[in-house]
Specification:
The longest helix has 22 residues, at 259-280. It is globular and about 65 Å long. By secondary structure, it is α/β, with parallel strands linked by helices. Strands 2-10-9-8-5-3-4 form a 7-stranded mixed sheet. Strands 11-12-14 form a 3-stranded antiparallel sheet. Strands 1-13 form a two-stranded parallel ribbon. It contains 9 helices and 14 strands. Helix 2 packs across helix 6 (241-256), helix 3 (75-87) crosses helix 4 and helix 7 (259-280) packs parallel to helix 9. The protein binds pyridoxal-5'-phosphate (PLP). Pyridoxal-5'-phosphate binds at residues 10, 75-77, 101, 147, 151, 171, 173-174, 192, 195.
């Protein structure tokens, strides 16, 4: 069995230690004689799994006690609807459109109320984060929405927008747990876990209690009402038991690595290896403005489509997989999430250096 270095944007690399531990428990979890996939979500065993997962996540992110943590399904995409349905009291919300995911969230919200795009970077293929220091925030906006790390384009908000007192809602799917955050600055933080935490099938919503309301938009499905899920402790119906179990193991792994401050410095070191190489290379170039560069997703191009395809093909043969860029940017993209070891990024830059030597014009 040979593991590769997997640079996929998602579903993405998971810590090998976690996968091994899960494998060792596959047939018999905790002496139960059953796999976690076979146990009841109403059992004491699962109570402990979800309880510890929540406690460890609260610990990692230092989540204040007036925030609820929900483990839900439907991916990040389902939250594009759930957020306006639950939060649009005035039926007005402001969106900052910094990529395809933010744009999709904005379009979805427009089904439920007046969704304004108050800033965008679409004019330059989303290659930067717009200035958000003095935005035309609507006086009656129920919230201001951002996608904090743009998975496809490789940009990240390094400072949060000035929302002029409105609640901030952030999709953090691709930067979840990559660095410490001040949860109290947000109304809602949410993300699908399949980028930086666990297996596809779980979305985590961290929401300030006063935003969990009964007076949601009419016809909001029971399942999409935060109050239903919060009152039931994420156990209103059958939750994604196995996915939550793996997330819990990743939280414990992150704590053992030293927590989010340690992850941040490690992520900065890994990203610097790649960005420094891109800045000095005559062949490979990063595609976004330097100050907005993501630590998690690094798109780059050679400027020559045939050379790009050859690179992706040869890299794959060398055990560096899923480097093909998103079709809207082209070229390559290396996603270097928490679980990507430094050795993987070193192998990638060494391979890029060799490729450049061999194919110099
Ligand atoms: C992948 C991704 C999504 C979509 O996630 P699903 O779980 O597939 O719905 C949304 N937002 C961001 C930032 C993403 O990276």
């Amino acid at each position: 069995m040979a593991r590769v270095y997997n640079f996929s944007a998602g579903p993405a690399v998971l810590p090998e230690e976690v996968l091994r531990e899960a494998a060792s428990e596959m047939l018999d979890y905790g002496g139960s004689g059953m796999s976690v996939m076979e146990i009841s979500h109403r059992s004491g065993l699962f109570d402990t799994i979800i309880g510890e997962a929540e406690a460890d996540l609260r610990d990692l992110m230092d989540i204040p006690s007036n925030y609820k943590v929900l483990f839900l399904q439907g991916g990040a995409y389902q939250q594009f609807a759930a957020i306006p349905m639950n939060l649009m009291k005035n039926r007005v919300a402001d969106y900052i459109v910094t990529g395809q995911w933010a744009k999709k969230a904005w379009k979805e919200a427009a089904k439920y109320g007046r969704a304004n795009c108050i800033a965008s970077s679409e004019d330059k293929t989303f290659s930067y984060i717009p200035d958000c220091s003095d935005l035309p925030v609507s006086p009656d906006a129920d919230y201001v929405y951002i996608c904090e790390n743009n998975t496809i384009y490789g940009t990240k908000f390094k400072t949060l927008p000035d929302t002029k007192g409105k609640d901030l809602v952030a999709d953090v799917s691709s930067c979840f747990l990559s660095e410490p955050v001040d949860v109290s600055r947000y109304g809602v933080i949410y993300g699908g876990v399949q980028k930086n935490i666990g297996p596809a099938g779980v979305v985590i919503v961290i929401i300030r209690e006063d935003l969990i309301r009964e007076d949601v938009l009419p016809q909001t499905p029971t399942m999409l009402t935060y109050k239903t899920q919060s009152d039931a402790g994420s156990l209103f119906n059958t939750p994604p038991v196995y996915g939550i179990y793996i997330c819990g193991k990743v939280f414990k792994w992150l704590k053992a690595q030293g927590g989010l401050a340690a992850m941040k410095s490690r992520n900065e070191e890994k990203a610097a290896l790649l960005y420094d190489f891109l800045d000095e290379s005559a062949m490979f170039h990063g595609t976004v403005v330097k100050r907005d560069r993501s630590l998690m997703n690094v798109p780059f191009v050679t400027g020559n489509k045939e050379l790009d395809s050859l690179f992706v093909k040869k890299a794959e043969a060398a055990g560096l997989v899923n480097l093909k860029g998103h079709r809207s940017v082209g070229g390559m993209r290396a996603s270097i999430y928490n679980a990507m070891p430094r050795a993987g990024v070193e192998a990638l830059t060494a391979f890029m250096r060799e490729f450049e030597e061999a194919h110099r014009a």
